[in-house]
């Protein structure tokens, strides 16, 4: 998945409460000064989505967003367990928050500290043992209970811990109304994973694969579009494994059966007024079916960009990773996708130094990268995650060798990304304006291939503006507004 560069403050304006979420306290909240809420988010876009929903749940209790810990009445650390030493980074932040909490207490102000997300799910007991000043620990599947947890934490001594996998669907308990996310909105349609890759903690922290019903997704998408979203990005641990219950017709089940796959959902989403662009992430090669491949050539709103992790180019390593596919399958998928959509940009994930990886295995990864040609990629050294099968596999690769392999791989990937960006220079493309640029008079946006772009000129967030791409930089493109260029000519 697309990963944020670091902790991201998140908040949302007030939204209606979910049924049963608010108490009498929430009705009184509007009569007094608002409480302040700070959410720090690490990891993937699904965590960003979860943080937005948590802010919405707490808004009826009077919580308004802040980015300053010293003025926050509640702080939520929404954590990710994918990166190395993730839990230690959380405890480091908790140490600083302990001091902030003490300073606020000295001034007569209380602070609720909560740890959410995958680190909370994996290490709940450890968190409360090492950081007893934490008030709430909640996993990714229980944040719909957050208003209740806040009430319990306010009344009781000791931490409130909710890290089970509840029988009820959390999405049924979230607010129906959504605060505007701006021109680009994220929408979770699938959670969890049944693949059990040897290196991955997601099945243990997010649970089994679960797909939301199509009707609920379409309703949320319509609300997002009504709130100004022009681009909707569908999220899931294995988003292309989505198989949701179809909306009911007046005569009962959909004529096409009770289950839709992702391609059908994308077609329905593309028909929603106001939706100009669609994306989805993250995909698994095993779940790229024929209809979804065809959809890339048949749905104009589906952007020519796909993040499709391969992890390794060696069949031997892919088997050790329990990926369930071989390199040849990935290569054939790349060819078929580009046949359906010739301008498709492919990005991927790679892990080097998985236990047992040899120099020959790494060479196979390099050959796959050279064969496919990627517009971008995330690449990492393998790091053991306690409880995962790979953590006990033999053949540990020395750290120096992992470093060398990663540098070699990243050099090739950077070369390919730079080449792709340079190949776009000279084109006139539709750019979705996302807001002002870094410098006065600039606007910023995203190309169909998800590249950041900036240009001098005016435009409102949500506008889709033709721009002529003039220069490629390491992480962005420069452009001029096409209509201004035509007028000058």
Description:
The structure is a single chain. Strand 18 (428-436) and strand 19 (442-446) form a beta hairpin. The chain is globular and about 60 Å long. Helix content is 34%, strand content 22%. Mean pLDDT is 86; it is low at 1-31. The protein is built from 14 helices and 22 strands. It is α/β, with parallel strands linked by helices and 489 residues long. It has 3 domains: 8-168, 3-Layer(aba) Sandwich (Rossmann fold), CATH 3.40.50; 171-349, tm_1862 like domain (pyruvate-formate lyase- activating enzyme); 425-488, Nucleic acid-binding proteins (OB fold (Dihydrolipoamide Acetyltransferase, E2P), Beta Barrel), CATH 2.40.50.140. The strands form 6 sheets. Strands 1, 2, 3, 4, 5, 6 and 7 form a 7-stranded mixed beta sheet that branches. A 5-stranded mixed β-barrel has the order 18-19-20-22-21. Strands 8-11-14 form a 3-stranded parallel beta sheet, sandwiched between helices.
Main sheet record: 7 strands, mixed
Helix content class: 25-40%
Taken from the alpha-carbon principal axes, the silhouette is globular
Q: Please, what is the CATH homologous superfamily of the largest domain?
A: tm_1862 like domain
The count of β-strands is: 22
